[in-house]
């Protein structure tokens, strides 16, 4: 038995969305302000805290209608709703779930639960002020508690077809249920993002969070032990720590007895005087050490050995956070075991708080095993961590996004929905999707949280792109006024010639992307044996084709077999007139500049900076045959690059080093090098869009 789907309507940013819950662990990812916290809050409100709904929980799109509410308003259109679709099998114990099953047809394997928070129209309209401004203010300040009606219904929409949801078109068939039944069916535990974790800076200014939660952990175990003493049939001696609690109680009883004897001597005079003076009878002072108080007041979490230890607040925030999480999970595990509900939900908000990347990797690896060890549990984890995402299964990821800053949130099943998009690509789709899954590293996972992305070809561009971005920001007036590229949330990925593999992925997450690539021109050379042409690398002048699959894909190249069409497209490619139809993706590649058309980034850069390279050649690494710089006639930079460039990364590194070191000593702060125009044009586009 498990929750298969959660549908949400009219709650804050979550106006109409649905989350697939078929995995044991579901990872909710997305940029800031996409509703991850709202999702956690809604679950908590409907399942545990129904009295906490208020005016601010209603989405902006309904506010105007709420302000105009009157006796004729259909409040069902304004209701906040959540629907749980529950799947079960013949092997499940349906005793508790049967309360929510309205049809016992043996062929059915689903039932649904509807949660509704509806405005109590009669109560609210009766007390609303006449004045429009006062009316609005009253609603903003008072629409909560007594003016809201929160209810739970069972329904079964098996086979329902129609534009309107079953729970709207078949209201008479909804069966209201008591919250006691719901509480028996579903146990929700939430570990919130705002955790009481403090560093050494806070020492002595408040409670110690680990010691405090250790106390809470012990208190729950102690209470359970008391309950088991009262009900021997359900005794839980096999529960973790049960035997230890009994031993602790026994030790404390012995201490009480010994202290009692000492108290009689210490307080003897005081007690005798009290009896004589106040006539209080047999007055005594006895020892009564409570185990909970002892844990709370006399225990602390330390690290190190007993002789040489440090207090908990000397630990880094990351360690404190993880330790706190693990203790919270243990508390939740106990609660799941104690209540023994058929459906258990654990929601962990932002486990990455305060932790460094390596610890986030470790958490992502370990948490799945920890969750799997808890029977009948489904876990939801919200995160902003690309490190956690990169260590997670594709099948677990649910992506929350907004089409605009004011638009509603949509929740997508990353694996299922994206796989469908890749299937549209035909035979290549499966291999491209496989590549994408293998490439979900820390870098590509950043795309989930980025506002923009830049794809680059290789190492040279990766080394020099930060310099080019700095050049753009300093030379562009618009950047100076509005904030440059360096201040924007941009993810840079080195994808080589595989940018096309990301096409459906980029469309799926809606990230505006600049692709900086090479034109990679080739020339068709007939094969004398079979007559089929081979395509060999060739300078731009005289080329007939390109080997760049990214250009072919995004710029819609005709098939090579359609010779005339393809040649016409190739001419448009060379002139820079071949454009992408996707307004969110722009490709930039080498175009003619100062009378020369480069084939790659390296020859474009050398052509642009030839004289400076010639002067500084002794200080530049990654070069060979540098004497050819003196005899170069200024015609074919592509051929020259092939002859003088030995190691691209070394060359790029020394170019960057010369820029940073020499410009630091130059009072004019003029840049030594110039960036190719196609790159600067691309940076302008990604900055503006």
TrEMBL record:
Domain OLD protein-like TOPRIM: 448-520
Gene3D superfamilies: P-loop containing nucleotide triphosphate hydrolases (3.40.50.300)
InterPro entries: AAA_GajA/Old/RecF-like, Bact_Antivir_Def_Nuclease, P-loop_NTPase, TOPRIM_OLD
UniProt superkingdom: Bacteria
Keyword terms: Endonuclease, Hydrolase, Nuclease
CDD domains: TOPRIM_OLD
Gene Ontology molecular functions: endonuclease activity
Domain (Endonuclease GajA/Old nuclease/RecF-like AAA): residue spans on this chain: 1-389
Pfam families, per database record: AAA_15, OLD-like_TOPRIM
PANTHER family cross-referenced by the UniProt entry: ATP/GTP PHOSPHATASE, EXCINUCLEASE ATPASE SUBUNIT
Protein name: ATP-dependent endonuclease of OLD family
